[in-house]
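pls ignore typos typing on phone
adenosine-5'-diphosphate + seq
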Amino acid sequence: MIDGSSLTVEMEEENSPATAIAPREPPKIQRLEESVVNRIAAGEVIQRPVSAVKELVENSLDADSSSISVVVKDGGLKLIQVSDDGHGIRREDLPILCERHTTSKLTKYEDLFSLSSMGFRGEALASMTYVAHVTVTTITKGQIHGYRVSYRDGVMEHEPKACAAVKGTQIMVENLFYNMTARRKTLQNSADDYGKIVDLLSRMAIHHNNVSFSCRKHGAVKADVHSVMSPSRLDSIRSVYGVSVAKNLMKVEVSSCDPSGCTFDMEGFISNSNYVSKKTILVLFINDRLVECSALKRAIEIVYAATLPKASKPFVYMSINLPREHVDINIHPTKKEVSLLNQEIIIEMIQSEVEVKLRNANDTRTFQEQKVEYIQSTLTSPRSDSTVSPKLSGQKTQKVPVNKMVRTDSSDPAGRLHAFLQPKPHNLPDKVSSLSVVRSSVRQRRNPKETADLSSVQELIAGVDSCCHPGLLETVRNCTYVGMADDVFALVQYNTHLYLANVVNLSKELMYQQTLRRFAHFNAIQLSDPAPLSELILLALKEEDLDPETDKNDDLKERIAEMNTELLKEKAEMLEEYFSVYIDSNGNLSRLPVILDQYTPDMDRVPEFLLCLGNDVEWEDEKSCFQGVSAAIGNFYAMHPPLLPNPSGDGIQFYTKRDGNVEMEDNLDKDLLSDAENAWAQREWSIQHVLFPSMRLFLKPPASMASNGTFVKVASLEKLYKIFERC
Ligand code: ADP
Ligand code: MG
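k done
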């Protein structure tokens, strides 16, 4: 075996031709001892104490248990004990119980696709015996006594001993990783796994509500997870996660039975806007397997962030069932991920169902609860502005136009908010505008800053709405992202048409619109190092200057930079309050707004942004000023191609070091290249996972996009079919 150190030495030798050494003989390949193989494999299946608990509990579930209890000592390193009341293990199976690849759940490969048990690899117990001391006590139905036996390295340490036993099986795993010093040390140093174990069992308990679960620390009287068998899932959630979670949940369901392949059904519970938490909890079961799915998690988080901009992260329980042959359960060593057929379509359907549910629920809630907030904000309101339309405040049931959503007159006791207090009209407003209603009003309720009432911002938002092109809106809402066609254009499909869509234009517009919608209600991105304005603006000025003969202008540039810095410092309070762009008194930029969750702008563009704020914003007129700052932010946050050339393609030349005019082979600037690769990969990820999903939810594409090359139709399937027919 080659170890790390010999590898390093070899590389050093290659890099220094002076020490010429005869080429090394190829190392001999040997068969590893079985115990080594097993221990390596075990380290993969049992990565930490919580993975052992998961395997043991799954075995208990597979054994048809109705009660499972777990006891843990020292975060699981000292002891994990899982007891169940399942069918037990036969005496004659005990000798091979802990050998690798012994299982009662699978006999041939094809069984994988019709399997209903959790386990199938016959590896878990074996793995545990290679990294811990395992003792099994079990009794099967009709026996008067049970058996107890201990295992090490896959085999029994002694013949099974008769013993008294209660129904089912108890497995004790002691001294986990006793023979893997490094892992034990890391685990001892990291926060202990007990929290993870509690989390795991809580999740299991709410899904398997026909089984009672308990989990406690060794020696503790009180269990940290305690669920009783209950036919109601909501009851299980209540007993495990508490009343505060259970009372704020709504049921969601969606199913699809498309003969062409996308068949699934999902049911679950999602939190409403009363629920408060800093962390998303997604309890996801696919075909009864507890799994993780970051794409679904993100999709749901995006909807919550969109619908309740200042709201908490959601609690979500979902159980998805698909035909067994559509799920590959065998892609991850601990089975914590699965791969699904039609995953993207399924996620999209779930995402839109969650959105509808949340929106409808919020309509009701917002209408009911605005009153209290309204009174509070009236009392604290320092502003008095008389732009309220008396006609509007007198209206009873008329739908409220989006631009009139926010109260602008604190002197009018009814104010514009009055419109929200009306009972919901019977004919529900159409999907789009009702979503905006909720967004604006929820924001108002959650953060009653007076600033959001500025009518100029409302006018700008109304401008966006009125320029919206209905056909493009339909396309944006329903298109599917295919991939990037080049650095700027993405290929998207809508119905039977393929389009090239300019992601720079689209993202710029989206960011601009979102800046207006989140006006004065941004979360903030804290910069790790405050950035000095004057230096950055100077940098931008130098970059902008194409004339190389400009050294003599340096003074001038410095003066411009100073002036712009002073100007921005003067405007700092406004920039912070309305846009969450924070400039401290020393002229350093230290905070930027979150425009779309999960997205930070390309920091290489900060200089350009600052220059643009200083130069292009018309500060005197309120509306133009807000528009200018929002446009500058929009341009900064847009998904421009990274400044480093794209290394996949001709751009690679940029990373080749040159010696005179001769390209030096194998002499790539590796650091720069890897920076560039990361930047491009990150951007593509953001385009697919942030830009397109957010566009579907928020973008109101202006009519100009239909003609300015932002959307170009490149093919239509009908026409293509016609061409193929002729061939
Ligand atoms: P797998 O679950 O993949 O079959 P394991 O190593 O986890 O592999 O378990 C091996 C076998 O031991 C199982 O197939 C099952 O027959 C038996 N077994 C393990 N735990 C229990 C239990 N708690 N009750 C009954 N049988 C069990
Ligand atoms: Mg198992």
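Residues 1-18, 364-452 have pLDDT under 50 and may be disordered. Residues 55, 58-59, 119, 124 surround magnesium ion (ligand 2) (CB under 6 Å). more later
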